[in-house]
């Protein structure tokens, strides 16, 4: 049930029985020498659509460009300023709440979005609080790659080569979706360096090929399908309460 | 060549030979009783991908939520405030120009975006002008449905039933992309009322089912494929000069 | 009936019988080697005052500095960023609607303002929509130089020398208002080059004296008076319905 | 020398010999039962034009709508939010400094603008400070009605009836400019109440006819001409140093 | 009664009997070769706490970083952009009014804050005015160093060496609070130059050690205690009416 | 070494040997029936000053009001909108980096600040990236209560009564600083309910006395001193590398 593929009378009918909606958010940024620039958006959207099917919950269009400031030294990366992304999330939430969507689950594919989205939740709540009468809204953000079952599966599949950027789980998921892009060639070093970083230039100098601590050559499309299934099931299990509780 | 499906080294290689990119923009808003809420985004993206293939030009991810303030009385419509959309476009342009994309063609699926996008072009240019050195950037916005060949075909197919919102050409194009959504049932009145409007409430009271001046029941998936082909060819013909001229 | 020359009790009395107001907007930017920097503001204000007299409608003070980013390489041009101009228009509309002015006609003298003003209309409507109760507001923007009767007269007077910037019609109108500034000397080339442009620097390099496609040396104060009369009559004819319809 | 009535080559020539410009700012707000809504803008503009003539200094178009939040309970008053007015002043200064106007004198007609304009000066300076190289800019704000010679003349003409809003000096000046608007009828009470206020509603309840401490019925067009002359001479005397000093 | 040292039930009880609160604001900026960078915040806070004790009025936490753009060429100075400071003041006022604090007295330690704070008062009032119902709020800003009794004492203690920045009264007050920082060494020149300034660079070149017109070597901790006492008494005398009047 | 108690020549001398600075950030919000409204700011400041002493690092003034939207139903709570707090942090960082402070450690006392501060780091970095030349800046945020040694001590002292708001560790720390405010009376229920929340109203209805999962009656001033010591030592141990690494 993609919002984009529904008509307005179908949405009206849906709102008779549910106030739930999923809003996927990703990023458009380098994912190492073999990972896709759209990895985070593709993963979030795929997980969201599976969850939507499982729970018969509407899925809004994906926010494809997120907060990727630290990746901007790599060609093709796109970023919104945090203040812009906050405004986008606030406007999306304000649109949805106007129609009666009062439980908004954001399924996220990119760690760099978390802070800004959380700030946007608070900003939106502040603005709703000033209106009369105050519209009720509950929001929640879930990072698909951090779910316990997903982390367990990731470690089982890739051990110490998961890393934290351009990771084999996310790469595998995109290769499941777009097998023609799979590029499992060995990389040098096999496992990329690991560590913190400060600015875009600092990121590039520490992690010259864009990976952090990962070996995405271990990914396979089959893994991706497994991960997608596990992630969707786990979120579906968690989200039911969120969507229906008073 | 979707940016989302490329790796950063592929983008780097691309930028060796081209500074062109297409950025599609649509909207997420009601399109009458039988049209899809995602119509404008789906159309813009489909046309952009065809043009990208024809010209071997990179296509950035679609801005799916646009400026749809006037549709907000219909369930499911989403809108960015114009100021938010301006910031989104500005940040996307700033991201692209940083990598050397200096010719950005926006292919647009929604009339309500035009003013805001044009304002965003000027806002971006003002900011680039203050930097030292000034990065060169050329932007252009094309509305696919207003191209002469598209308009000619639309009139040939639908005569006086084209209208200006939830039109058969755009509906046909989405049905070509998602035939399972095609819903050609007759509507009442056959051709929706036509005219201007002022606010969201005013829109709904004048055009109670969301259409303006159109009869989307005439649309067919086959028409949609024809329209997509004509639109893409026409833009490809026009964009070559824009992308390559100094 | 200039708002500036009324007292507040006079405005209060006016609002008993009308909710209409005209808000002129121009620009402060180069108009070629012989045209005045204030051309767009002077024209919009003059037309607005004539319409105001004809319809006995109040005229608010002119927004004299508009969006003129592309003219900034010529000395004396002033510009607001689009986001600033949006805020100005939004605040003016919010001020007027507070008093009960619910029909605001903006008479515009500058093409570069159109996108930003339209975006401002939507931004304002979004904000009004969130208030409780929602104040009703209808806005309309008219470009005086594009009115059918004005275009016909322009072509009759100047043929293919009208062009699109520093045009003889607008120059003529300012010379009618300020005959001491009339400077009909022949220019070289007689008709300026025509075409599109991208940035302020690009504009100046394509159109080195500031004109686009025009020969303002054909302008005369008498033409200006004719154009002013035709423009005001045409708008007066169109605006009646806008001001009074429910 | 109004900027609006100059051509860009005239401005270019002017900048060869001077970097000075005057930017008048007023307000559009109630001025008591007999004063004009445009009083503050009319006064500032008139004084600025006289100073411009005396010193052969360019005068930019008047900012006619200022910060008049406290007057908004009186029909016809218009206001910019302080943040909007700051953006307007910042954009005007940024436009001027780009051409080489490095000494900007703002002649002000409204006390309510002072804080916002001073804040805008600092905001602009902060932004210029971040550019490379930093453009030099000096700004100054003068309130015409507070000049020592103007205050002396005001007291001589009106004694304890000057007050602080809708004062006879400003009313006289507008009546000198627009004698047909002069309305010297006696008001009740003769001298309006005096005091502080907090909000728009509070202002209206304390000062029901809009005047504060004043008796504008004493004003005459002849007084206005005297005041205009004195104000312009005094500013001309002070501004010379500002415009020319390094 | 520092808000920071109260519990929420204590604030709830306080609001049963009073709607008054004091909000101190200072700055973090150079104060000459011997004055503390925190001078303005320390002074405002000390005076506020004394007034709070005298009147049994709650004191909110001090806004320690203000608008100090002109001091930024001296190491250690910090500044908010005026637009940021406006947002801070607006948010603080909105927070307080939500709980029923309807009389907010800001005690200020820095001249550079005045314009921005006054603009913030108007911005806040504009926003409150749009809400339904409109919350009542009265705000007042007092500069402690300009109070008549403080000025008299300052002149009596320091004569023509008070100056306008890094003045002996403010320096004395901080030395009373932090005697270990007292540094009464003679400065060269004894009295710093006096005059106006335009930008941060201009300030530093005119006033190379940061003082304007002052000789802070005359300050003593004992003077500081005297000044603190006089300032607090004077404000306590003035504020009673503000806090309690309807 | 508080920045507030230094003179500018002392800061200049300091910058000769170090580019490090600590910027504490807290909040002003309810902390249960017995905890202080200033808890988070008091704790962050106290820890920061200890770390500053241990490492001889400068400490900037505390940001006392943070992002406390969810506490606004309790009297006395103050909040900045996330967008305002982002601007504050950005301006503070921009001020510091201008002087050469290139390693900024924020010591945080409030979980609700984390998202916004992280977003502000990215926003600042985006802006610095556009300047020419790009100033180097590294930022880090540490939550004192989450440090491993602090958590271990907290659990050892309070077992399952730590909770997540109005916790005994933070309450103890404030009572160490202000023993006169210690209020160890038993609360009902002993341990407050635990769980998630969505809006300010939702927070208050779930946690009616403001505590989440905690029993602050266990706190003692002596515990607070212990916790302060452990926190400061742990941060001092971690921050050395951050401050000095290239």
Structure, described:
6 copies of one chain form a homohexamer. Chain A has a single domain (3-237), classed as Rossmann fold, CATH 3.40.50. Helix content of chain A is 46%, strand content 8%. Chain A has 8 helices and 4 strands. The first copy, chain A, has helices spanning 8-17, 39-55, 82-99, 114-130, 148-158, 168-177, 200-206, 221-244; strands at residues 20-25, 58-59, 103-108, 138-143. A 4-stranded parallel beta sheet of chain A has the order 2-1-3-4, sandwiched between helices.
In terms of topology, how is this protein built?
6 copies of one chain form a homohexamer.
Chain A (H helix, E strand, L loop, with lengths): L7 H10 L2 E6 L13 H17 L2 E2 L22 H18 L3 E6 L5 H17 L7 E6 L4 H11 L9 H10 L22 H7 L14 H24 L2
Parallel strand pairs in A: 1-2, 1-3, 3-4
Helix pairs in contact in A: 2-6, 2-8, 3-4, 5-8, 6-8
Oligomeric nature of the chains? homohexamer
What spatial form of chain A do the alpha-carbon principal axes imply? globular
Question: How many H/I helices of chain A?
Answer: 8
Could you spell the SSE succession of chain A in H and E letters? HEHEHEHEHHHH
Radius of gyration of chain A: 18 Å
Structural domains of chain A: how many = 1
Query: What do we call the CATH topology of chain A?
Result: Rossmann fold
Fourth-level CATH superfamily of chain A: Creatininase
Biggest interface and which pair forms it?
Answer: A-B, 54 and 54 residues
Biggest sheet of chain A: strands side by side, in what order? 2-1-3-4
Biggest β-sheet of chain A, characterized?
Answer: 4 strands, parallel
Task: Tell me the number of strands of chain A.
Answer: 4
What percentage of residues of chain A falls in helices of 4 or more residues? 40-55%
CATH class of chain A: Alpha Beta
Our estimate of the beta-strand percent of chain A is 5-15%
- Structural class, from helix and strand content of chain A? alpha/beta
Mean pLDDT of chain A: 97
End-to-end separation of chain A in angstroms reads 23 Å
Assigned CATH architecture of chain A:
3-Layer(aba) Sandwich
Contiguous uncertain segments of 5+ residues of chain A:
none
